[in-house]
Amino acid sequence: MTAAVLALVAVGLLLAVAAFILPAGSTVEIVVTGVMLACLAAAGIILLFGDGVAGWGEAWWNVLLLVSGGLAVTGGGPLTTSVLALVDRGNTRSQSTQQAGEVLRGGALIGALERGAVFGSIVAGWPEGVAIVLAIKGLARYPELRSPDQPASVTPQAVAERFIIGTFTSVLWSVTCAGLLLSH
Questions:
Q1: SS3 for the chain, per residue?
Q2: Model confidence over 50-76: pLDDT tens digits?
Q3: Residues of the chain with pLDDT under 50
Q4: Cβ-based neighbours of 172, under 8 Å, separated by 6 or more
Q5: Residue 139: exposed, middle, or buried by beta-carbon count in 10 A (0-12, 13-18, 19+)?
């Protein structure tokens, strides 16, 4: 069981790195991200129907900690861009959440830091840290979300949608990755 879980999470991490390299929002990225998500789900199912990580030796648990932490930080970016690409299908250019990236600069780096902080908070047993991370992000992004000086190529609704969808996807992904470590 330990080997299967570690292998699935490691394959998920490799797929996350591959998806990170692919063009954002491309069909190939969406497919690779879906397989990455399936690897994490399979690892979770194995842990759910087994004994979780309760009987694991400390060394193997530490390996899972490092690999799932890497997956939380790295995999969340491609997953978020894939979700945003799926949301954008059929939208006009001004409604595009991809175009809203012009307003919300630094989203990839902020998202990676956010996922790392959320993952660390959950694994450390301090879920209140998630609220602090989200509060800081919301306060820091508020001026951009409410600025009247947004480019004409994007609607304020698209900017707000990108912020909300991106944040929820990112946080849910990192919490799910952390959940592997907390299974008993």
A1: CHHHHHHHHHHHHHHHHHHHHCCCCCHHHHHHHHHHHHHHHHHHHHHHHCCCCCCCCHHHHHHHHHHHHHHHHHHHHHHHHHHHHHHHCCCCHHHCCCHHHHCCCCHHHHHHHHHHHHHHHHHCCCCHHHHHHHHHHHHHHHHHHHCCCCCCCCCHHHHHHHHHHHHHHHHHHHHHHHHHHCCC
A2: 889 988 999 999 999 999 999 999 999
A3: none
A4: none
A5: exposed
Distance CA 47, CA 109 (A): 31
The per-residue pLDDT for 55 is 87
- Residue 156: C-alpha distances to residues 38, 95, 149, 152, 159 (Å): 34, 9, 10, 10, 5
Return the amino acid letter for 176. Answer: T
pTM over cut 0.85:
yes
